[in-house]
Amino acid sequence: MSTPPFSFPFAHWTSTSFATPTASLALPSTLILGLATGEILIVSTGADPQLRARLLGHRSRIIALQPFTSISERSSAEPQFLSLSADGEVSKWSTRDYRCLQSVSTGATRPQGMVVAEKCGIGEGRLIDSLVLIYARKTQVIVLNAESLEIVLVWTGLQDWGLPVVMGKMGERECEIAMVMAGGAVSSWVLEGKPRNVGNPEVLKVRKEKKNRRVAIQEEWGMIKGAWKLSGDRWLIAQTRGVGIYTLDGSSLSESDLQEMDPALVKAIVSDNSETVFLVNEAGITTVFDIKNGTFKKIAEIKPGEVDDQCVVDVAVSLTRNGEGTLIISSRPVIHAHGPGCVEGHNYGTQLTFADFYIVDGVMTNLIWKEKGLSRSNPPRNSIPPSSCAALFQNLLCTVHGLTLYFHTLPTFLISYHEPTNALDLPLSPGDCVSILKSIPLLSHAYLVAGTTSGSIFVLSSPSSTPRHLALSHGAITGLYLLPETLGRRIRSTLLAIDEHGTAIIVDIERNRIMTTLPSHGHSTLSSIAMKMGQNLLALTYSDGVRREWSLDEGSGELINPVSRNEESLPQLDSDWMVTMLGAAPVVDEERTRPVSTESDKSLDVCPGSPELGFPSVKIDVRRVLADLEEATKIARENRRPQERKVNAINPALVRAKALLTALFPEGVEHLFPYQDDEGDKAWGEEDEEDILRRAVENCFIRRARLPTLGQIGAGGRVSMISPDTAAEEGELSDTVAGILILAVILLVQAILTALGKDDYLIGNVVDRIIVTWMVREKVTLGVFAKFWGDRHPLIQSTARRLLSAGMAHLTNEERSLVITFWQDFLPINIPPPLATLKEVPRSVMILTTLLHLFPATTPTSLIKPLSQSTLVLLNHPPTSAIASEIVSYAWPTLESHSDPLTLLTTLLSLPADPPITSSLLSITRQNTPLVISTLLSLISTPTQPSLDPNSTRIRTRAIQLLTTITTTDPILLLDLLPTIIDTLLKHPHHDLLASLAKTYPIFAYHPTSGRVAYSGRDGAIIIMDLKQQGLVMHDLMGHRGRAEWVIFSSDGKWVAALAPLEGAEGVRPATGVRRGSHSSVGPRPSTAESVGMKKSFSSSGAERRNFDLPARQGTGEGSSRPGSSSAAAGVRREVIGQAQAKAEGWELCAWRFPSGLLSFIGTATTGERDTVVKVRGRWKVPGIRNISKVEWKAVGAEAPVGQSHGSGERVVVVKGLEGERWECNVNT
After folding, report:
1. Where residue 610 falls among pLDDT bands split at 50, 70, 90?
2. Which of the pair, 635 or 364, is modelled with greater confidence?
3. What CATH architecture is 387-565+575-588+599-613?
4. What is the C-alpha separation between 865 and 238, in angstroms, rounded?
5. What is the pLDDT of residues 180-218, one digit of tens each?
6. Residue 407 forms beta bridges with which residues?
7. What is the DSSP letter of 221?
8. What residues contact 759, with CB distance under 8 A and at least 6 apart?
9. Closest Cα partner for 334 from 324, 345, 323?
């Protein structure tokens, strides 16, 4: 089972500007801009340009953007794009819903760009057919798989750093790459796909070709900035001061035409058809050339004056093959909005200007500038100033807008952002603003600290308290860190404030005083701090490689080591130093549970980076909202009065759930639960079932108008915030968003209706209507439901599985075929080892197995064998074995029909005895008990051969453990098979398992010392067998007229007693969970062939299923007893005789005593015949007890010394009733 993150981001779009563009990608009707802050903007370039989305997650400037096409569940050619940031992180985004699909840190230092080699013919299948090449100012290139972003090759051996140019497919499984070096040398390399080999996980290798070329570049033009392979043998080489077209002639590239650039070249854009090039110089002038004939033919020149004299910083071009295009010019922002020194009324931020054009026959026409550009996000009416930072404080979200702190609960943030719980103005001077906001939790109290651009901090002890002011330095406060309580007494639990110049100030925020100031080194910023446990020592490392160690035992601190001038001379810190890197943010994995803040209500968290960009956004955890409401519902149901067994309307947990549901689905009940007119006769004012259901759903929403916009959380914690205008458009709901949204909506509706006291029938009807309505109207991604298929939360798991089945049912044949095509490439047997960690791998087995299970007639038969093999691969892979076992148990009827069930069972038994795997085996046992039990008994009875099979001993032990677990947790399953189990264990005894059987089943008894077992036969005989003689029958003890329900040995093994219903109860079947009206299967030792239809149990598809009718247990609840617990066994003993107790007139007790000479099994028994010497010592009627809970022996008199016989000492049988009755009988008199 898993617990994947389940959160939604919400944002309020206040008026905000954009940072400087550093990369751009123009697609048809869409512009993608990468900014210096790491943000990515999605802008529509149609008749009315507007911002569509803001993509967050990169922590440094965007270096490159590249388009990419892949396959998905819903499309055979889904457009995507890749982004590369300066810290070496690569992300893949969908251009349909702007969600981050994958994210990875490549480890590349100083990356310069990336190149995508799509469908280059390398490798086997789609998953290793496209590559991404990351190049940097180093002699290596990092090669990634374009589908998974897994690093498949680190290409080394280059003499110098260069620019890779994809030449195309060279041969079978080969792709040629040309590396253009700084000096003009061009080396040819070949990336070759290697055959898949489990022992060698590498899928690529690189070799250098002997052919080397050289470009006759113009050395006076400076360094090479770009290289493109044009049509034919022509190349385009861009240098700082010019651009040239070169033609391949043997081993050299000779110039065909040159175009000098003055001012210097900033950017070159080559069209997809290689016929047009756009050159942008430092002055912002864009010159357009036609190059299809191998020469530069100038066709247009666009000067900065055409964009209102702004300083051009970036140009993007979208040009189709028929000549239609769009030109987008980005002008330089003057200063970031609402920063220090902002001037009221000045238009800050990036300005985007759009122009449409048409190029035909080498002539640009119709260059029309659009009247509307884009300078900032469109603010809503009555907008407040943009936010600058945010933090969680005392279960509230605090955001800073201008000079005001706004405090919000989850409902007020979602429903009434402009009406906060509290607002507090800070006494800041003109031009000053808040630069950082952080909650500082101390042992005694939590404080909110706001750092300003003037070097001061404000400390708040509560949202309504007066802030305390403390001036620290002359530079903006950029960092606030709480020093650990494990340090020395003087600096423990103090605040370390850092300003923009690298000065560190230690502050006692409880006493509101500065303890000491540690000056900077040449105004260099701090990169890390280190501390020693139990000491007042700090080591500060600066960005220029200087480290200073300070002793803070007294006074203002003492510098205790010399200054180091570079990183190479820095000595390594000892292991007892605790190092904290400043500014480092952890990479978050989408598929793993992330810790939540302990300072909030745990359902609310700040989206990192967004408040600093001007729009406040939060992540709301659906799991926590559900957990809080479920806890409130549980508490409410403990009330004694029925009318009070529902959650109060003003309960915070219920209000949070309603607010989240309203924000997720602002259309409300009309869109979620549309009215259906049955055209029936209904009197005015009369409510039918439809009205009742709709009114119940209406009560789940809050009627408010001002709502935030909903975003998405993708891979690596990347957040995609959709603009309000885009969110308001019809048909903008992608299949991924539709899937995760309906899952959250149904979960919240169920939890809210349950909290309001609605019955299960109404809730079930509501959910059915919502699912049908949604699946008819929206397309969903099945992978979303597969993500939560094995969730630990029962409600999330069941709802996800239900939606997965419903989504499959609403697929057309064409859509179902596309789903199979997409997911079968991710089956483990089709994945090379380096890609085996993809999250899609287990989901592929999950989705395709469910599809085969629900729709076997429409699933291709060619899929069955690879699916069975893939299931075994997942079972044998430790990280996926648990979820694979759940898949097997869920689809067992289908898998046992289309694969080898014995192999699956043996593989499951070879896995560790973890709870999920044991639970799956129990589920399979309930579905086909005869097959599982016969497999277990076969493994138990087969001799192990560790030398030939090292796992054989472990599998046999696991089989015994599973049989013991079944005995103690679900013993009803084994009743029909009990004779076969006993027969096997008599020949291959296992004492713990026999003891467990005796503890669970009253009709069976085991005495470990003498090695005897006893069980009740149909004819009333008590059959005694000896383990020492491989189960040879020693005695048939006659006495009862009917079948006994309790059999017990005395502690010394000399006595055996049996309790049976009186004659009036003969033929009554006890409540053992077997089929009603049948007789007990435990009789006079049946043969193996007679035992419960073993011949039928091996039928894979038409096997006889043993569906037992288990009545309510007396004294135990379902799941109340753990496997192996004594309470579980006691509960089963009570239920085994439950129905017989209800109908019997009374009980009859018989007791037998073995002669001392027979304890060692001597005399007539050696002939193999049954010994009939032992006779019943008496019969007693048990009065006054109708329902029996326990039968036991009790010794009376002094115990004999060890090694001596007890003689004829008295023996007493005690019978206890469920209502406390007790009856004793001395069977020796």
Report:
1. confident
2. 635
3. Beta Barrel (2.40)
4. 54
5. 888 888 888 888 776 555 445 456 778 888 777 888 888
6. 398, 422
7. G
8. none
9. 345
The domains of the chain are located at: 387-565+575-588+599-613, 622-675+690-709+733-806, 1002-1063
Residues sharing a CB contact under 8 Å with residue 510, sequence separation 6 or more, in sequence order: 442, 444, 445, 447
Q: Are strands 50-56 and 40-44 parallel, antiparallel or unpaired?
A: antiparallel
Q: Are 781 and 74 spatial neighbours (Cβ–Cβ below 8 Å)?
A: yes
pTM for the model: 0.81
Q: What CA–CA distance (Å, rounded) separates 455 from 447?
A: 18
pLDDT given at position 1173 = 58
Please indicate whether residue 687 or residue 783 has the higher confidence score (pLDDT).
783
Residues 157-174, mean pLDDT to the nearest whole number: 75
CA atoms within 13 A on the CB side of 668: 13
Q: What is the pLDDT of residue 729?
A: 66
d(CA 862, CA 868): 11
Dmax of the chain from CA atoms? 124
The better pLDDT of the pair 336, 1177 is held by 1177
Spatial distance between the Cα atoms of 576 and 578, rounded to a whole number of angstroms: 6
Q: Which strands, in side-by-side order, build the sheet including 242-249?
A: 162-171, 174-181, 185-193, 204-215, 252-260, 242-249, 234-239, 224-229
* Cis peptide preceding 263, ω within 30 of 0: yes
Residues 1164-1178: tens digit of each pLDDT = 333 334 444 577 888
- In the structure encoding, which two tokens stand for residue 556, read together? 């203002």
List, as own/partner pairs, every contact residues 209-213 make where C-beta atoms lie below 8 angstroms and the sequence separation is at least 24, other chains included.
209/176, 211/251, 212/185, 212/186, 212/187, 212/188, 212/251, 213/178, 213/185, 213/186, 213/187, 213/188, 213/248, 213/251, 213/252, 213/253
pLDDT at 1073: 26
Structure-block tokens of residue 925: 């046992």
Of the candidates 240, 326, 245, which has an alpha carbon nearest to the alpha carbon of residue 28?
A: 326
Among 45, 23, 46, 51, CA closest to 36: 23
Q: How far apart are CA 629 and CA 781, in angstroms?
A: 28
Question: Tell me, what DSSP letter sits at residue 1206?
Answer: -
Mind giving me the DSSP string for 711-734? Answer: EEE-GGG-EEEEPHHHHHSTT---
| Residue 285 phi, psi (nearest 5) | -85, 130
Whether 29 contacts 618, CB under 8 Å: no
